[in-house]
Amino acid sequence: MKVNGKPTRTIWLESDGSTVGVIDQTALPHRFATLKLATLDDAARAIATMQVRGAPLIGAAAAYGMCLALRADASDEAIDRAYAVLLKTRPTAINLKWALDMMVAVIRNRPRSERAAAAYKRAAEICDEDVAINQAIGRHGLKLIEDIAAKKKPGEPVNVLTHCNAGWLATVDVGTATGPIYAAHDKGVKLHVWVDETRPRNQGASLTAWELGQHGVPHTVIADNTGGHLMQHGMVDMVITGTDRVSAQGDVCNKIGTYLKALAAKDNNVPFYIGAPSPSIDFALNDGAAIPIEQRGGEEQATMTGRTADGRIETVTVIPEGSPVANYGFDVTPARLVTGLITERGVLPATRDGLARAFPERVNGLRVGVGR
Predict the structure, then answer these.
(1) Cβ contact 193:222 at 8 Å
(2) Which of 54, 135, 149, 223 is least surrounded by Cβ atoms within 10 Å, i.e. has the fewest?
(3) Domain span(s) for CATH 3.40.50.10470 in the chain
(4) At 189, phi and psi to the nearest 5?
């Protein structure tokens, strides 16, 4: 995607060939800033503090975090430590563990002298694979948008509602939920995106709106509680969100508030789709109720950060002093509320059979003991 007209990925190798560059997403939308990650601790901190966020990008950043660890120490003990440090940074997104397992698989049995180079090669492949997956999700989702557009009156846009940020900022490039949106926009399909603000961290208002604006996609930021009203009044044609983990039976774990959007969509006969790259599918976990839900610090909900009229960036408290806060980061939408999972292998039903038939190698891998 583009930043100020320049094609940009969210993660890259710096000119020295080893340091990792990333966009600092905590600075957006008021300032575009980048970070250099030089150590394992740098990578872990960036993931934990959400300078790097979004399930696919977390996986890519963790892969490069393993590379940075091996550059300093390529021993078996260092591999184990790096795996443990990175794994505990964000417990909900399965892409994190998936990427770490991919990295360990290519370095564990190599001579120490070869491990760092092999790790950097595999991390780069994970990044390129993510881009290809998201491009495929975009192609498959484009057909859904085109089908809706064909039924609209001339000049009417397809109205898409999305929650949180599952755009290119949450991936290496293109995005999962936004993949079909960008594909449709670039093809000339008239569309408009309703952008949930997504409290408490405002990833919709701060990130999705920013990147849609950078790409020239028409959009409107709304309060999280507005979606149901819009659906009742026929102002939403489809919902597309991303996911941090999909269970084997098709339950979807995503940013808190997604479940409520799915309920409203079901009640108003609005199709509810998930941009679901295969690394986000956890075939070893049957029921979405078993997905660990991250609980984050209360300050995220108790405060808000923004730009003042004179240009200063300030953080203010928005709740009474002493009031306790519960900050659940994610919720689970049951498969029965999901119209379809938009994957790199097509739009699938949110069912065990649908997922297993599309990705038999993942299921068979678990059966013979080579999965997670």
Answers:
(1) no
(2) 223
(3) 137-367
(4) -70, 130
34-54 as b/e, with b when 16 or more CB fall inside 10 Å? ebebbebebbbbbbbebbbbb
Task: Report the predicted TM-score, pTM, of the whole model to 2 decimal places.
Answer: 0.94
Structure tokens at 348: 């699938």
Question: Is 244 part of the annotated catalytic residue set?
Answer: yes
Note the maximum CA span of the chain: 64
Report d(CA 118, CA 106) in Å as an integer: 7
The DSSP annotation for 65-130 comes to: HHHHHHHH--SHHHHHHHHHHHHTS-SS-HHHHHHHHHHHHHHTTS-HHHHHHHHHHHHHHHHHHH
Mean pLDDT on 300-318:
94
Compute the distance between CA of residue 104 and CA of residue 246 in angstroms, rounded to an integer: 23
Identify the CA nearest to 215 among candidates 195, 236, 245, 241. Answer: 195
- The continuous run of DSSP H or E covering 50 comes out as none
Mean pLDDT of 38-44: 98
Token couple for 279? 């690394």
**Active-site residue identified among 130, 224, 244, 282:** 244
For residue 37, CA distances in Å to 8, 24, 45, 204 come to 17, 11, 10, 26
Statement: residue 253 has pLDDT above 70: yes
Q: Average pLDDT over the chain, rounded to whole?
A: 95
- Those residues whose C-beta lies under 8 Å from the C-beta of residue 2, and which sit 6 or more positions away, are 8, 214, 215
Pick the CATH number of 2-128 from 1.10.260.40, 2.40.50.140, 1.20.120.420, 3.40.50.300: 1.20.120.420
Strands 158-162 and 191-196 come out as parallel
- CATH topology (fold) of 137-367: Rossmann fold (3.40.50)
